[in-house]
């Protein structure tokens, strides 16, 4: 009889050890999955923010193209990075950004047909337009020259800078942080 009890206890210990080991393995797997998904989510938010923040630190202004006047060269929804330069440095065929009027603050992206340095104005035209713009662009309405444009990125990132977009980005960062914290607790519980 004594031998049978020892065998049963040994079986129970073995089963209990297996269960503990299975739980540890499940915790390790869950922790790894949470780390991966949390890291991916955090990386996605950072990747969305980089095109909007780093260029600004380098002195560029960023605008989204919302009309088709510069297509096909710069499609609607593109993100344009604008460098401040002296108006006199702008050359024919450069793409510039300027205020439509100083009162409304609307921003236009068009190509320079002619830079009239003496009179302090540009003659501009949208690539998709058949004629030059009706009124010359005075130098005081000039914002800068387009250095780079990324097609369609403006349409995507334009959503991020809205209030709902910022709330979603904040929630994504919070969710990623909670996943990474939960992964750490699962690892601690398993050791």
From TrEMBL:
GO terms for molecular function: serine-type endopeptidase activity; signal peptidase activity. Coiled coil: none annotated. Its EC number is 3.4.21.89. Its main location: membrane. GO terms for biological process: signal peptide processing. It is found in: Membrane. Residues 1-11 have a biased composition (Basic residues). The keyword Coiled coil does not apply. GO terms for cellular component: membrane. Keywords: Hydrolase, Membrane, Transmembrane, Transmembrane helix. InterPro entries: LexA/Signal_pep-like_sf, Peptidase_S26, Peptidase_S26B. CDD domains: S26_SPase_I. It comes from Candidatus Fusicatenibacter intestinigallinarum. PANTHER family: SIGNAL PEPTIDASE COMPLEX CATALYTIC SUBUNIT SEC11. Residues 1-25 are annotated as: Disordered. This is Signal peptidase I.
């Amino acid at each position: 009889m004594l031998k049978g009890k020892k065998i049963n206890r040994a079986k129970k210990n073995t089963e209990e050890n297996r269960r503990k080991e299975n739980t540890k393995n499940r915790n390790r797997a869950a922790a790894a999955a949470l780390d991966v998904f949390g890291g991916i989510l955090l990386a996605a938010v950072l990747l969305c923010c980089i095109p909007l923040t780093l260029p600004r630190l380098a002195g560029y202004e960023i605008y989204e193209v919302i009309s088709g006047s510069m297509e096909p060269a710069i499609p609607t929804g593109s993100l344009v990075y604008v460098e401040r330069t002296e108006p006199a440095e702008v050359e024919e065929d450069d793409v510039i950004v300027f205020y439509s009027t100083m009162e409304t603050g609307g921003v236009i992206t068009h190509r320079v047909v002619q830079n009239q340095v003496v009179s302090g104005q540009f003659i501009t035209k949208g690539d998709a337009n058949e004629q030059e713009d009706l009124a010359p662009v005075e130098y005081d309405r000039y914002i800068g020259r387009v250095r780079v444009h990324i097609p369609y990125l403006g349409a995507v990132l334009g959503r991020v800078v809205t209030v709902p977009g910022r709330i979603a980005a904040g929630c994504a960062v919070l969710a990623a942080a909670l996943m990474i914290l939960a992964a750490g607790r699962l690892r601690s519980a398993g050791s």
